[in-house]
């Protein structure tokens, strides 16, 4: 029987995971449009500055991937996470369309789910 991922994580790994979970939420879903279930984060707000804003948030998103690598997420998952980041950065850099895309795509939340599946851990429960 395989050992669940959360049993092999060090305390440092758990702190890293909590930090990236909070960052992903801040970037993708921290705020809600009143009266709706539409959530958005800093990625959508800062992304209003064409290219520069998306580059800033892509750098923040790269930190999530870096920490996933440090924790031991498989390289194939890291590549998928990088793909999500690139898609988010390229399409997000398109004025207006990119901002709407950011609200729906939520690359960082996708990457958190990839980490959770790879490590067999629910980051929200750490």
TrEMBL record:
One family name in Pfam for this protein: DUF4112
Record keyword RNA-binding present: no
Alphabetized UniProt keyword annotations: Membrane, Transmembrane, Transmembrane helix
Keyword Transmembrane helix belongs to the record: yes
Membrane-crossing residue ranges in chain numbering: 45-66, 78-98
Matching InterPro entries: DUF4112 (IPR025187)
Protein name: DUF4112 domain-containing protein
Organism the protein comes from: Kordiimonas lacus
